Amino acid sequence: MSPTSQPVAVIALHGGAGTLTRRAITPAQQSLYRETLTQILQAGQALLAQGASALDAVTEAVRLLEECPLFNAGKGAVYTSEARHELDACVMRGSDLASGAVAGVRCLRNPVLAARAVLASGSPVLLIGEGAERFALARGCEAVAPDWFGTAERLAQLHSVQASAGQAPALDHDAQNLLAALPTSPLDERSKFGTVGAVALDAQGHLAAATSTGGVTNKLPGRVGDSPLVGAGTYANDRTVAVSCTGMGEAFIRALAAHDVSALMDYAGLSLADAAHRVVMDKLPPLGGRGGLIAVDRHGRVALPFNTEGMYRGWARVGAAPRVAIYADEEDGTQP
Ligand code: GLY
Fold it and tell me: Is there an atom of ligand 1 within 6 Å of 215 CB?
């Protein structure tokens, strides 16, 4: 991009990172993930092509990911140790650092829309639990019964994790069958660090980021990860970059991972590729920070690094075909 030209709008998204089950799944099962990511990218791309803001594009992309039971956010979210759901989400606008987040919500169909409502209010930035639910419902967000989020696969994952942790799982028939069956997803759902997220640059040159998650399987009730925390799992600043992270949240919180990418660019002059690589490959691993991130900078460059075996990811520029990838040996989309 020349200094005077308009940027080409672009959106990137992720659906979690983790270890592989590649040899065990069928091509049809892999295709399901790739096609779903492609369709959601196309939806975000279409919004950007119509002149929508980056904030609207990432909010809609994450809402669609929340609606899809393949990913750990909204419908299909993982269970707490008490076999319930507690959901977290955040949105951030790069033009003015406006942010909104919710944590520990149990009855909101789309936590990202609740986060967006918090952003629209101007203040506060982060609401939790019942207060967040009341706030969002009063602003038109949809309520669902707490069991709406659950799937048989996620319940089986909870039982599997509890069994391997030495806790006595009371496996129901469905769960027994699922655990005995071959994997049905490209990344091992029992060890995947599930989150969904989107980052975008719009035609006006503004950046935005959104992240949503059910957290980690078997988490303590009340545990909050990095996703809803500005600067940890989500960050956007028009001076630098928009970032959405996925991984073991405690490490991403301690590293302030998303903001660190921006700070390395802003204060140390690193390129997006170098800053994102430094955070994911050098800073997070010593903290136990397995996972990755997606990022788009103010010039529209994209980086999607991860330190696990795979990460569900994709990116789409307006006017170009969307690209999706899962494994480490596929094109990663990073531009130097
Ligand atoms: N990265 C999602 C979480 O740890 O909750």
Answer: yes
* pLDDT tens readout for residues 45-57: 999 999 999 999 9
Task: Fill in the DSSP letter of residue 17.
Answer: E
Per-residue model confidence as pLDDT tens digits over 307-328: 998 899 999 999 999 999 998 8
The sheet with strand 310-317 has its strands ordered as 126-128, 99-105, 87-93, 207-213, 196-201, 10-18, 310-317, 323-327
d(CA 17, CA 14): 8
| CA–CA distance, 113 with 283 (Å, rounded to integer) | 32
Chain centre to alpha carbon of residue 56:
16
Catalytic, out of 21, 80, 195, 240: 195
Task: Kindly state if the Cβ of 86 falls inside 6 Å of ligand 1.
Answer: no
Is the pLDDT confidence value at 174 over 50?
A: no
Which tens digits make up the pLDDT trace of 104-159?
999 999 999 999 999 999 999 999 999 999 999 999 999 999 899 999 988 988 99
The answer to whether residues 4 and 197 touch, using CB atoms and an 8 Å cutoff, is no
Measuring CA to CA, which residue among 173, 218, 216, 194 is closest to residue 82?
Answer: 218
Q: How would you class 121 by CB atoms within 10 Å of its CB: exposed for 0-12, middle for 13-18, buried for 19 or more?
A: middle
Q: At what angle do helices 152-164 and 173-180 cross, to 10 degrees?
A: 80
- Which band of pLDDT confidence, cut at 50, 70 and 90, is reported for residue 171? very low
Mutate which of 218, 244, 248 for ligand 1? The one with the most ligand atoms within 8 Å of its CB, which is 248
CB 163 within 8 A of CB 185: no
Q: Is 21 in the active site?
A: no
